[in-house]
Amino acid sequence: MALGAWVSTTSSERTMKLFLRPTLGIALLLLVSSCVKPRPDQIYRGTYFYNFESSSFTPEGTNENWCLSGDLRKAELPARGPGGPWGSAYVVVRGELGPPGHYCNMGASKYVLTVHDVIEVRDKVARDL
Questions:
Q1: What is the rounded distance in angstroms from the CA atom of residue 66 to the CA atom of residue 59?
Q2: 92 - beta bridge partners?
Q3: Among 7, 89, 78, residue whose Cα is nearest residue 46
Q4: Is there a contact between 25 and 13 (Cβ–Cβ < 8 Å)?
Q5: Contact, 103 vs 67, CB < 8 A?
Q6: Dmax of the chain from CA atoms?
Q7: By the 8 A CB rule, do 39 and 70 touch?
Q8: Sorting pLDDT into bands at 50, 70 and 90, what band is 80?
Q9: Torsion of CA 73, 76, 81, 83, to 10 degrees
Q10: Could you point out which of 21, 30, 89, 126 has its C-alpha 20 to 30 Å from the C-alpha of 5?
Q11: Could you tell me if 109 and 66 are in contact, meaning their C-beta atoms sit under 8 angstroms apart?
Q12: What digits encode the pLDDT tens for the residues 110-123?
């Protein structure tokens, strides 16, 4: 067999190579992307309390206070003084609840809720400083 036989390819071989390369790439991309787990977001409803020093979330129907992480400025009233905003609001948020532990202000919260989206805000109430 001559050396040239290894180099030359038929048109059907070239067509297969042109087809297989992108197909293989797409298959690998799909395989890798299926390994990524979506965030286990859930909907939470309750009262959001905030002041200059801390914030907490009391889920509807409980007396627990959860630590919050995320941007909840949408649920806050503007500051009325140098102490910053201070108040509460009823909120519906989409987020992820962390495992039990000791979170936020001196470890007083059993859970931390990482808020990804603020869905609804109502009953904003300012607190006196």
A1: 8
A2: 45, 120
A3: 89
A4: no
A5: yes
A6: 94
A7: no
A8: confident
A9: -70
A10: 21
A11: yes
A12: 999 999 999 999 99
70 Cβ contact partners less than 8 Å away, ≥ 6 residues apart? 93, 95, 113, 114, 115, 116
Cβ neighbourhood burial of 83 (10 Å; 0-12, 13-18, 19+): exposed
Block residue for tokens 């859970």: 111
Residue boundaries of the structural domains of the chain = 8-33, 42-126
